[in-house]
Amino acid sequence: MPVGTLATVKGILPQQLKDVGVQQVLANTYHLALRPGADIVEEMGGLHQFMNWDGPILTDSGGFQVFSLAKMRKLDEKQVVFRSHIDGSVFELSPEKAVRIQEQLGADCIMCLDECPPHDVSPDEMQRAVDLTTRWATRCRDAQQRSDQALFGIVQGGTHQKMRERSAEGLVPLDLPGYAVGGLSVGEDPADMYTTLDFTTPLLPADRPRYLMGVGRPQDLLESVVRGIDLFDCVMPTRNGRNAQAFTSAGPVRLRNQKHQRDPGPLDPECGCLTCTSYSRAYLRHLFIAGEMLGPILLSLHNIAFYQQLLRNLREAIQLNKAAEFKAVQLARWGISN
């Protein structure tokens, strides 16, 4: 799911997302509640109409901001209180309010409010966050009024197996439509993330979507899918694209490098997106060197297309019972040891 925090995937039109195979996008409860406000989005017909996207939308609850804006918030049993990063005003977010805002936004998949602790907190702090997340999930479920939105619970616990088990034991009995694995890709080693998924995904219902939040690199997607993950979101395709890095079938390409200055070839000869079929590496590099806004747009579009094609190919490999082989071949092409 490309990240459209403020009801837009930066620089990309909704039709362009569809053209490269995007099925679902992500928006953010905290940010949209601050600007333009949930009431305004609701008045404009909900997120689908507001942003002209008729496909599925998932909204994060604001739980990640509990982690990312830790210096600007206070948290207790009742709620989390933020100091707005925009104007310093106070913004209170309880589990009930998080659900209400997401119902106003009108997303198809909505997330329980949770506490995402740093991966290196003490065992006592980790357990406190896990138990609070479970209690908040119960409150979110009880507060939900719309029946047309799928509420996902979020399993926390860092890289600790016992904590992940404790979190799943609290959340699975709530019988939610989907479950997410949160609290990864927040500073731990990738190998620790994979190990955590090895013991976490089997704890979650196999007949419900399993969503790994905030991940990640192309190799992370491959490693996670073979461990049972179904859904992903990450800013990396667009953020890296805006900073002149492309993901390609042969590995990452940095367009600012001088070696591309006279390269007439496509960015990725195996990609059929608009960027790769219409523009040379030399032109793309020129756009970034000249500070032209078309460069970030074209690279963002390509990176999204690359991620979508990678997962389409992986789905086909799964159907042929060749997922492990597909992963090994891809990692070898990127020069990554399996």
From TrEMBL:
Binding locations of substrate: D60, S61, G62, G63, F64, D114, Q156, G183
Record carries keyword tRNA processing: yes
Obligatory cofactor(s): Zn(2+)
Recorded superkingdom: Bacteria
Active site: D60, D233
GO cellular component, one term: cytosol
Sequence ranges assigned to domain tRNA-guanine(15) transglycosylase-like in this UniProt record: 1-330
Span list, region RNA binding: 214-220, 238-242
One Gene Ontology MF term: metal ion binding
InterPro entries the record matches: ArchSynthase1/Queuine_TRR, TGT, TGT-like_sf, tRNA_ribo_trans-like
Subunit structure: Homodimer. Within each dimer, one monomer is responsible for RNA recognition and catalysis, while the other monomer binds to the replacement base PreQ1.
Function: Catalyzes the base-exchange of a guanine (G) residue with the queuine precursor 7-aminomethyl-7-deazaguanine (PreQ1) at position 34 (anticodon wobble position) in tRNAs with GU(N) anticodons (tRNA-Asp, -Asn, -His and -Tyr). Catalysis occurs through a double-displacement mechanism. The nucleophile active site attacks the C1' of nucleotide 34 to detach the guanine base from the RNA, forming a covalent enzyme-RNA intermediate. The proton acceptor active site deprotonates the incoming PreQ1, allowing a nucleophilic attack on the C1' of the ribose to form the product.
Similarity comment text for this entry: Belongs to the queuine tRNA-ribosyltransferase family.
NCBIfam families named in the record: Q_tRNA_tgt, tgt_general
Protein name, UniProt field: Queuine tRNA-ribosyltransferase
